[in-house]
TrEMBL record:
GO MF, one example: metal ion binding
Region of interest (Disordered), residue spans: 18-58, 565-584
Keywords, ordered alphabetically: Metal-binding, Nucleus, Transcription, Transcription regulation
Name recorded for this polypeptide: Zn(II)2Cys6 transcription factor
Domain of life: Eukaryota
Length: 627
């Protein structure tokens, strides 16, 4: 009966608006007659919705009564949000008061929360349910846009835009998602520092979440560099007085003192640093390299800058958040699930930390930065880059196996892209001559695909990312051509791959779209253009290193023999990087694969701070007399 009354009232409001004579000017209505066209905020106590809220100009839009909301009670979707979304990756609300305040939240925020949380638990998102959630998101977006256009922006509006940005991005509407974030950041930048806000703590959480989302999924243009001001290069070095290339400025939006002075403590405070370096790595992947770029090993290059930031993570993240102290594998599945808000943030730090050097040392991206380099490449850099990708891809597979063992499904879509990056490295190594490396790479690729398929049941864009990886795998062919690497060293020919698709998969904004194409969903016919995608782009094809271990197949690497990374045994022959490894060499690689941020103690060859302290104490206690 209450729903019918709301429906009748809405129709009467529409009828009165249509029968009322149009106003000829603002002077005809006095102050007492001036009524805002924006409806009063709704305090939703149940799932019934007034249709008139979604009617503009007498035209009825989508009807929520057609949506199946029987299971969308506040207790249900509110608990789903806390379990699967809170702190994974953003924290918009205080979990201790979130459920009891749901009935006071604005309608557009409730709709966005439902559209996000009702896709969980994983595996429950059917096609019919996806259509219903899309309708909720659309109505929420229209409601939020009404507030923006009518000048009634509230905290709930910013929270709604954050949630809609996640939904739109993972549904492939990248431009719409970036528009949501841009509006939210603009309003947040315009806020005045004040302690008299209705909920200053929740406001600060929202601002931090906007900043976090900008770093994780904000659009990065192909020409973007790590600094707004590029250095002037002279004889290969930056000129003194100019901005350093590796400067990592805080984004102009949201760089407010009152936010930084009250940064979140605990593990969420450390995800901020990790997201900063990850954003720099994303720019590195999307940047179109020019002919005058500094080589990666130069201390002023973008590569060196980000690797320094990666080292900062290793030095600033407290020991208690590292693997050696906070052992994920020591907890049972039930304990992990109850604290998803903590373990989701913990895995964020671990996986992003491992993905940064994988992206920086990705053979395809490095090859593009080396194609204009006409001098001998430092062999130490070849081994360093190879060791880094082997170590950190090993960590990524380790965590995938561990999550599989514990039945723990991460819900942060950004982490799926980290796995997708690692999958492309495994795909390259799946065609090397070294049988041991080839076997591990093929097994690693399958594990990455299984992980992505599982996350694809939550986020449509991740399912498409998995399809793009399979298409990339299918594009690999063997070309019998006496070209780049020479028939003497490569009698079987070279492997070719869809290089443009490979590059696009490494760019988060495109990886989750069909054929990894740029999003043009918001543009009309007058603004749409042809997708620039060519499998025969020679400039990109030259960066193809499929079948080589790391960048060892690059044209600047000595064609026949390279000095081995480790001193050979006396009388031995220096092995090539593509030769069969001896069991001893395999053991060396295995130990190094498990090095990294908080390596497990059973395999740890990386000294901890306590180890150095013990060594110093032993040195001072050394008995010289007995020696």
């Amino acid at each position: 009966m209450e729903d019918r009354i709301h429906l009748i009232e809405g129709k009467l409001d529409q009828l009165i608006q249509q029968l009322s004579p149009p106003a000829t000017g603002p002077s005809q209505a006095g102050p007492s007659q001036a009524v805002s066209s924006y409806p009063a905020p709704s305090r939703a106590s149940n799932d019934s919705v007034d249709e008139s809220m979604f009617s503009r100009g007498g035209r009825r839009e989508e009807n929520l009564s057609n949506l199946n909301l029987k299971d969308a009670s506040p207790e249900n979707f509110g608990q789903l949000y806390l379990t699967w979304c809170h702190s994974q990756p953003i924290a918009l609300f205080r979990p201790d008061t979130f459920l009891e305040t749901l009935h006071t939240r604005e309608l557009e925020l409730l709709l966005a929360l439902k559209a996000l949380s009702l896709r969980f638990p994983p595996g429950t998102l059917s096609l019919q349910k996806q259509e219903q959630l899309d309708a909720m998101a659309k109505l929420s977006r229209r409601r939020a846009m009404d507030r923006v256009t009518d000048g009634h922006v509230e905290l709930s509006t910013l929270q709604t835009l954050c949630i809609l940005s996640i939904i739109d991005f993972t549904d492939g509407r990248v431009v719409q998602a970036d528009l949501n974030l841009s509006m939210a950041s603009h309003f947040a930048q315009s806020l005045q520092p004040s302690s008299t806000m209705s909920d200053s703590e929740e406001t600060l959480d929202c601002i931090r979440s906007i900043l976090m989302l900008q770093r994780l999924q904000g659009c990065i243009f192909p020409g973007a560099r790590l600094a707004s001001v590029s250095p002037m290069i002279h004889n290969g070095f930056p000129v003194a007085g100019h901005a350093k290339f590796c400067k990592s400025p805080e984004p102009a939006v949201l760089a407010r003192t009152y936010v930084d002075s009250q940064m979140t403590t605990g593990i969420l405070g450390h995800t901020k640093l990790v997201s900063e370096i990850w954003q720099m790595a994303r720019k590195y992947a999307a940047y179109r390299v020019g002919p005058d770029e500094l080589p990666p090993w130069n201390s002023h290059s973008d590569y060196s800058c980000i690797m320094q930031g990666h080292m900062d993570i290793d030095s600033l993240v407290p020991t208690k958040y590292r693997f050696s102290s906070d052992r994920f594998g020591d907890h049972n599945a039930e304990e992990l699930h109850k604290r998803r808000d903590y373990w989701g943030a913990w895995l964020f730090i671990q996986l992003i930390y491992a993905a940064i050097p994988c992206l920086l040392n990705h053979p395809f991206l490095l090859s593009m930065r080396l194609r204009n380099f006409r001098h001998t490449m430092p062999q130490s850099f070849i081994y360093q880059s190879y060791e880094l990708i082997m170590r950190h891809t090993g960590w990524m597979i380790y965590f995938i196996d561990l999550m599989e063992k514990k039945s723990f499904v991460v819900s942060d879509p950004a982490l799926a892209h980290c796995v997708g990056i690692v999958a492309t490295i495994h795909l390259q190594h799946s065609f090397v001559e070294d049988l041991s490396l080839r076997g591990r790479a093929q097994a690693g690729f399958e594990k990455c695909m299984k992980f992505l398929r599982r996350m694809g049941t939550i986020w449509p864009s991740i399912a498409i990312m998995a399809q793009n990886l399979l298409k990339l795998q299918a594009s690999i062919t063997l070309a019998h051509s006496p070209s780049s690497r020479g028939t003497e060293d490569d009698p079987q020919g070279d492997f070719s791959i869809d290089a443009q698709l490979l590059w696009d998969i490494l760019i988060y904004e495109q990886a989750g779209r069909h054929n990894a194409a740029v999003d043009q969903s918001m543009f009309g016919e007058s603004l749409k253009g042809e997708t620039a995608h060519s499998e025969n782009d020679l400039s990109l094809a030259a960066a193809n290193l499929v079948g080589s271990a790391g960048i060892s197949g690059h044209k600047t690497v000595p064609a026949k023999y390279v000095v081995p990374p480790y001193a050979p045994s006396e009388g031995g022959t220096p092995p090539r990087m593509t030769d069969q490894r001896t069991p001893a060499a395999d053991r060396v690689v295995e130990t190094r694969v498990f090095e990294g941020l908080g390596a497990p103690r059973d395999h740890d060859s990386f000294l901890q701070a306590s180890d150095f302290n013990k060594a110093i104490e032993n040195w001072w206690d050394f008995d010289y007399v007995n020696q």
